[in-house]
Amino acid sequence: MTEIRPVTIISDTPEIGTDFFGFDAYARTISGIIINKKNKTPLVIGIYGVWGSGKTTLMQTVKGILDQGKFKDESDSIRRCKTVWFQAWKYAKEEEILAGLIEQIFKTMKEDGFITEFKARIEELVKKINVSKLSEKLLNFVGGGEIAQVFTDPEYKKKLGFYDSFQEIFERLIWNYLSWRPKISVLEEWDDTKGALVVFIDDLDRCPRDKIPMVLETIKLFMDKPGCIFVIGAAQDIILKALKKTYEEDAVRFMDKIVQVYFNLPRIPVEHFEEYLDKKIPEMKGQLLPHLPLIIPAIQNNPRQLKHFFNNLNLMEGIRSNRNVNIKFEHLLYWSIIECVSPELKKEICDNPAMFQTLRDNLEKLAEENESGTVQDIPEELLTPEVFPQSLHVYLQNRGLVNILIHLDTSKEQILQLITLTGMVKSLETVEKKHEINPAVNTESMVKVLSGEFSPGEDKTIKTIDEHYHIDIYPVTNEQYKAFIEAGGYENRQLWSEEGLQWKENNNIKLPAFWDYDELSSPGCPIVGICYHEAEAYANWKGKQLPTEIQWERAAGGAQGRIYPWGNTFESEKCNTRESGIGKTSRVTRYPNGVSPAGCYDMSGNVWEWTTTQDGNLRILKGGSWSSPANNTKNDAKTAKPDDMRQDTIGFRCISIERQYPQ
Description:
Elements: H1 23-35, E1 43-48, H2 55-68, E2 80-86, H3 98-112, H4 114-117, H5 119-126, H6 132-142, H7 159-179, E3 195-201, H8 212-221, E4 228-234, H9 236-247, H10 251-258, E5 261-264, H11 270-280, H12 282-288, H13 292-298, H14 303-323, H15 329-341, H16 343-351, H17 354-369, H18 399-407, H19 412-425, E6 446-449, E7 452-454, E8 463-465, E9 469-472, H20 478-486, H21 498-506, H22 532-541, H23 549-557, E10 608-615, E11 618-622, E12 638-641, E13 650-651, E14 655-656
C-alpha cells in the first residue's frame, strides 16, 4: 500500500477562545463597554481592520464573553446582554436589509426559548398589529412555523412600510426578551440598564458597495431605540468609499453620527506571531523563526496572509515529499519567502528562470568587489548599469531579501521545479497583471557610452565614435509613449519634421497603429506600430534624438564588439526572439541576463529599433525582433524600411549628447 504522508493546513476559521495576537485583552475591553449599564444606548461600536486582520475573531470572542455572562464584577453596574450575529452580505440581493435583520433577531429569540415560554404573551401583543396578513403570519411563527413565512410578501420588505407596520410590537418583543431569563417566569419592568440587545454585523465590507449605505441606514432606524447595541466589523476605507458615492463630502460626518466608539485593530508585533507558530505548527517553528522579521512585514502583519503563507508552503512540501522532487525543504522555504517579500522578483524569475542565476552571480561579484566582502552596504559606485543590470537594483534595497537570494543555491532544474510548485498552489488573488514593470524601476534611465574606436560584428571592421553620448537603457515603452500622446505630441507641429507632418496629416494619424491591441499595448512592453516620423517626434519631445547605426552598435556590443549583447554565442534564454517562442513583445526588463556591456536591455530581439542612418531611400533598423531568428539579432545585423513603415515588430530608443545623466 502506498504510504500517505500527513500535510498540515491551518484553518481559516476565527480563532475563538484563544489569546492569539493579544485579542483577549481587546475583547474584554470591548465587552466591558457593552455590559456597563452607565453607557447609554443605543450604541454603535466600530471594529475596523483590513481583510484578514482578525475582525471576525475579535467580534466572536466578544460575543462569547457576553453569551457566557460570567463577569468579575457582579454588582449593579452590569447589565445582561442578548446577542445576535448578522451577516449583512448574505442579504445583498434583497430589496432591503431591514427584513433580514429583524428575521435574524426573531430566530435568535426562538432558539433561546423565549418564543416558546412566553407564547401567550407574544400572541396577545401580535394581535394588536393593524395589518391582518402580517399578524396572521407572525402568529403562525409563534405557533411553530418558520419565520421566513413572515417575510415572503414583498409588501413587508419595504423599509418604512414594513417597519412602521409593527415597530411598536417589535420594540415590546425586544423589551420583554431582554428582561426575560430562562426558568424565571416573571418579566421585569424593562430599561436599558438591565439589558441590551447586541447585534454583531460581520463583514460589512463584503456587501456590494451600493448595499453598504443601506445597511447603515437600517442601523439608523434603531438609533432611537434604547437597549440596542451594534458592533460593526469592516475595513473603514471601503465603507467610506461606498458612502462617498451617496453622501459625497458628508461621508465621514455620516459615520461619526452613527458610530460612537472606534476600535482600529493594531498591527500585530512579530513576537505574537512567534507564539502563534508555537501553538499551531511547533514542528516548523525552528525553521521559520529566523525569517519572521522578513516575512511578517511583507504580509503586512496580517494573520490570514500568514496562514496562506504557511499553507502554501506545507502544500508544496507535501508535493515535494510525495513526488521525490530534487529540492530541499529549505529551497521551498526561501522560494516562498521571495514570493512573499517580493512578488515582482518572483514574477521576473518565472518569466525568465535564467535571470535568477544572473542575479546571484552579480550579487557574488558585488560581494567580491565590496571592501567588506559582503553584499551589505554596497557603495553606489559599484551599482552602475555596466556592472549590475539596472532593473535588479531595486532588489538590493531589501537586505533580508538579498540574504535569502544568497542562501537559495539552486540549479536551473531546481528553479524550474520551484516555479512549477508555485503554480500549483497559486490562488486567484495572487495572479499578477501581465507585462507590468516594478514601479521602482526607472525606465527613463540612460547610460553613458564613451567615444573612441571599436570593432563591431564578426568582421571586426574598426569604427569610431566621435563623442560621448547617453543612450536609453530600455526601448521606449507603451507607458512612456502614452505620456507623449497625452501631452499632445501628435498635435504639436513643432515636434515633427516637414516630411513627418505631411505624412501625419495626409493619413490622419493620431495614434500608433496597434494602440488598441491589448496584447501589444501592455505598459511595460515596448511601443510598436510607430514609424520613423513618430519616433523622431517623440525624441524631440524628450529633448533627445534617435541614434545612428554606429552609436547603436557601440552600445550593443561594447568596445570589443561582441556578436550578441551578452557575448559571442546565441542564447535563447537571454532575449525575446523567434527561438523564445513568446510570439509577441515582452516586458523590457525581462532579460537582465541579456544586457549589453553598456547595461542596455533588449538590444537583441523584442523590437527592431529605428536609427537615423539611411540606406538610399530607406532607414536602417537594428536589433531584430520577437519574430526574428537568432542570426538576424546579431549586433551587426540590420534591415531597412521606408520612414512611414509601421509594424508590430518595430520600436525605438533614444540617445542624448547634450544632456548629462547619472550613470
